[in-house]
Amino acid sequence: MTKAIIFDSSTLINFSINGLLPELRGLKELFDGKFLITEEIMDEVIDKPMKIKRYELEALKLKELLSDKILETPSSLNIDENRIPKMTNEILNVANSTFFVHGNAMHIIDVGEASCLALSRLLNEKGIKNIISVDERTMRLLCEKPENLFAIFQKKLHTNVEFRRENIKSFQDFRFIRSTELIYIAYKKGIVKLRDHGDVLDAVLYAMKLNGCSISEDEISEMKKLKKELKIDYFYYNKRVRSSTIEYLAPASKFVRFASKISNGLVRTQKKRVKFPSCPFHPLAWLIFSMSSLAFSSPKKGIKSSFLTDRIELRFLKFFIKIPMSFS
Amino acid sequence: MQEKENVLRILQETKAAVRDNDSILLKELSNQTIHTASITQDPDNIAVAVVVYSLSKIVERREYASFSGWKEFYKIVMSCIENSINAIKKNDDKRLKESLMCVRKAVSKLSGKLKSYIQDVFRKAEINKASKMYEHGISMEKTASLLGITMFELASYAGQRLDGEVSLSKTVDIRTRIKTAMEMFK
């Protein structure tokens, strides 16, 4: 079944400002569907900024994503693009007449955001599974929890706001993700290249937040907690995206490194140095060497990819560590 | 122009605050204008919000007074505010627009460092007011188009703004959202 992620300008701008467009390319390689943008979004992220020297480079980079078919237009899924403007106007009319102050309708969203909703609706009509990636808050709140948007208006505008709840029915069928969820997946799949240096997940999530993604610090903390349960799926990424030998060998070489450390009595776990008898023929070293050779020889059907993760590696080590301790 | 009485009061207080070099009061007045601008989205209301905020920043930086061209600029700004007040009193929307534009023209007449500094202040004021409107619940794209700035400019300002409404910005549990995203990539 075909599926699609519809990109709002806020998400694309966030990836672009943070220099994470290569990661977006990586995600597209993994995604068994289309990354779509509407003409209205194209205008916001490419055509307009192209005329401003300061943002011309960003616009060119995004344009290249279009040329390389990383981003595609709705017509790639046989969507009649002529229907989008009309449906966009319908959505705009309803959305911008949902909240009233002193009898005047508040214009809360604009044409680009509405065009994403219109495209999502057209894809739903065709039975194409889709999700909208949007970083800005208003559209997401309008569709997912309009009461909260109402509460924000009341809190911020210090006046009575009228909320026409009957309009909300038209916004209930949309699903959303943000750039933070996309970059989380990129991290999980090993696409974020900085993975071995410091707290990379923290760095990329905050970079996304500080460049317009509406995510709270609590949510980032929660994501980081999930990271502890996270298994970096090297093989999944390698099998599908990279076929170079070095990438295949990366997890296996970790086993070799562990094995050599054990041979030299250099393994530390949880601040305690574990004393191994320094011996090149240590049984644990041989066991890990054999695991690594299995990984070298049959990455596809040998060791499951999840087995080759940092976390599992540690558990594996903790389990076997008791054996040499008893020997020594 | 909507909410004229409110804007008239704000401009009268602005005039006094500029004369007294009271940047704190100017900032407060600027915050008041943004409520009106968010509700009405009227270009004149937005222009008032930008001008008042820019003046707060200009008054705050006292070193600008030592640059050449400052005295003329100050005179023009004061007369523009006075003209705006008179225009609102006379219900003359066209003259009000011209008076507000006159402040921006005064900037373009400047030269040297003062010109680039004050132009920068006005540009940043536009972005700041846009991010404030976003904070008030108007979408990023809508505020960018109202203030005549790009989404690129707004993005980094907007990202630092929303911590005050953390609980109201949460809609779906983060685990559920990640699960939804992961399902798309299966």
Q: Main attributes?
A:
heterodimer; A: 328 residues; alpha/beta; Rossmann fold; 2 domains; 4-stranded parallel sheet; 3-stranded antiparallel sheet; 15 helices; 9 strands; 57% helix; globular; B: 186 residues; mainly alpha; 10 helices; 0% strand; elongated
Description:
Chain A has 2 domains: 177 residues, Rossmann fold, CATH 3.40.50.1010; 85 residues, no CATH class. In chain A, helix 7 crosses helix 8 and helix 13 runs antiparallel to helix 14. Helices cover 57% and strands 8% of the residues of chain A. Chain A is of the alpha/beta class and 328 residues long. In chain B, helix 1 runs antiparallel to helix 2, helix 2 runs antiparallel to helix 3 and helix 5 packs across helix 6. Chain B starts with a helix and ends with a helix. The relative contact order of chain B is 0.11. By secondary structure, chain B is mainly alpha-helical. Chain B has one domain. Chains A and B meet through helix 1, helix 3, helix 4, helix 6 and helix 7 of A and helix 2, helix 7, helix 8, helix 9 and helix 10 of B.
Task: Summarize, please.
The complex is a heterodimer of chains A (328) and B (186). Chain A contains 15 helices and nine strands. Chain A is an alpha/beta fold and 328 residues long.
Percent range for β-strand residues of chain B: under 5%
Total beta strand runs of chain B: 0
Average residue-wise pLDDT of chain B:
88
SS summary, helix count of chain A: 15
Question: Which strand order do you get reading across the main beta sheet of chain A?
Answer: 2-1-5-7
Distance between the termini of chain B: 53 Å
- Helix and strand element order of chain A: EHHEHHHEEHEHHEEHHHHHEEHH
Task: Please tell me what the overall shape of chain A is.
Answer: globular
Q: Please give the domain count of chain B.
A: 1
Shape of chain B: elongated
Q: Whole-number average pLDDT of chain A?
A: 80
CATH superfamily membership of the largest domain in chain A: 5'-nuclease
Radius of gyration of chain A: 25 Å
